[in-house]
């Protein structure tokens, strides 16, 4: 079975396990971030399905990812409430491989150990909605790998446990009995009709898992607008986030194209939103937002980072 070796360790995040744990602790420690316009509390009876997290170096975007995962949900946190199994959707920065490539089995390695791939769930997804098994699109892609140490560090519910009921905390990494499993999906296409078909197939897979009492979560990996000044980035990101928070994938795709917002994960986010709408009445809320200017002090050329949580009523 294939073992995907890390390509971003030592560049985007520390390659030493102890230094990585320290970085994760810092990212997950509550801290002040700019108040995200558009945030709203989830309603009674809401179910958390997934999150959107940024994938830059931890020094730039780690505190946004941490703010989402350490944020409150029920009696615990969002990170603890995510299901044990998660499909992780990312953009394709390399241009390699299948346009909807699914890593089929094996594991992904980080300095904290190996993250198993749920081969059964991957097989259920492949052959539907344009998804196909492919490792090539993932080999040089950092956008999923950067998020995996967060999943390894945080506890996960046991199999068949109700989402949101995990309250384990205080450990430096989740014990093996609570290890998460993933299905990595690299999205390298932006045609709405292709993304819609993929989202509907993804939604169907989530419904099957839900019926089997072993729900599957969604994690979308995306940064926001790239390499423009702070004011322009805030404006473009605001337009894209407005449509994302409205759970309108068609409008999101149209908006990023018309505004020339370089949100790299617009396509995987659209797939997630199409799937979400197949599950029930969707909701999304902005948990954190920042730009690289907070780390660099340079507002002339920034990258935007947004952290969202989403689900259904």
Could you explain the architecture of this structure?
It holds the Pfam family Memo. Belongs to the MEMO1 family. The protein has 313 residues and is an alpha/beta fold. It contains eleven helices and 14 strands. Strands 2, 5, 6, 9, 10, 11, 12, 13 and 14 form a nine-stranded mixed β-sheet that branches. The protein has a three-stranded mixed β-sheet with strand order 1-7-8. β7 and β8 (113-116) form a beta hairpin. α7 (192-211) crosses α10 and α8 packs antiparallel against α9 (249-259). The chain is globular, with a radius of gyration of 18 Å. The N and C termini lie far apart (38 Å).
List keywords for this structure.
single chain; alpha/beta; 313 residues; 14 strands; 3-stranded mixed sheet
SSE layout and pairing:
Blueprint: E1 3-4, H1 17-28, E2 47-53, H2 58-69, E3 72-73, E4 76-77, H3 78-81, E5 85-91, E6 100-102, E7 107-110, E8 113-116, H4 119-125, E9 132-133, H5 136-139, H6 148-153, E10 181-187, H7 192-211, E11 216-221, E12 226-228, H8 230-245, H9 249-259, H10 266-279, E13 282-291, H11 293-296, E14 302-312
Parallel strand pairs: 1-7, 2-11, 5-10, 5-11, 6-9
Antiparallel strand pairs: 2-14, 3-4, 6-10, 7-8, 12-14, 13-14
Helix pairs in contact: 1-2, 7-10, 8-9, 9-10
Q: From the structure provided, what is the oligomeric state, counting identical versus distinct chains? A: single chain
Reported by name, the CATH topology is: Protocatechuate 4,5-dioxygenase, Chain B
Low-confidence parts, pLDDT < 50 over ≥5 residues? 160-171
Total helices: the number is: 11
Number of domains in the coordinates? Answer: 1
What structural class do the secondary elements suggest? alpha/beta
| pLDDT averaged residue by residue | 91
Supply the CATH class. Answer: Alpha Beta
Shape: globular
The CATH architecture classification is 3-Layer(aba) Sandwich
């Amino acid at each position: 079975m294939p073992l995907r070796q890390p390509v971003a360790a030592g560049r985007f995040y520390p390659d030493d396990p102890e230094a990585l744990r320290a970085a994760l602790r810092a990212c997950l420690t509550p801290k002040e971030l700019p108040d995200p316009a558009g945030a709203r509390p989830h309603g009674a009876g809401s179910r958390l399905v997934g999150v959107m997290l940024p994938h830059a170096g931890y020094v730039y975007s780690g505190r946004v990812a941490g703010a989402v995962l350490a944020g409150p949900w029920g009696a615990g946190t969002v990170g603890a409430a995510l299901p044990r199994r998660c499909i992780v959707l990312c953009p394709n920065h390399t241009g390699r491989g299948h346009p909807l490539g699914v890593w089929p089995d094996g594991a992904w390695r980080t300095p904290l150990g190996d993250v198993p791939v749920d081969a059964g769930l991957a097989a259920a997804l492949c052959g539907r909605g344009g998804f196909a098994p492919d490792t090539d699109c993932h080999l040089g892609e950092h956008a999923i790998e950067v998020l995996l140490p967060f999943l390894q560090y945080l506890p996960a519910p046991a199999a068949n446990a109700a989402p949101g009921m995990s309250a384990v905390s205080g450990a430096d990494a989740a014990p093996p009995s609570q290890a998460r499993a993933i299905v990595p999906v690299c999205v390298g296409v932006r045609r709405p009709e292709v993304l819609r078909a993929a989202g509907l197939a993804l939604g169907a897979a989530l419904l099957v898992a839900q019926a089997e009492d072993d729900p599957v979560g969604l994690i979308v990996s995306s940064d926001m607008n790239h390499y423009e000044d702070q004011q322009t980035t805030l404006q473009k990101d605001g337009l894209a986030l407005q449509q994302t928070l409205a759970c309108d994938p068609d409008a999101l795709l149209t908006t990023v194209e018309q505004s020339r917002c370089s949100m790299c994960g617009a396509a995987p986010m659209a797939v997630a939103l199409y799937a979400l709408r197949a599950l029930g009445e969707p909701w999304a809320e902005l948990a954190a937002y920042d730009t690289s200017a907070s780390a660099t002090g340079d507002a002339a050329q920034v990258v935007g980072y947004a952290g969202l949580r989403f689900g259904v009523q």
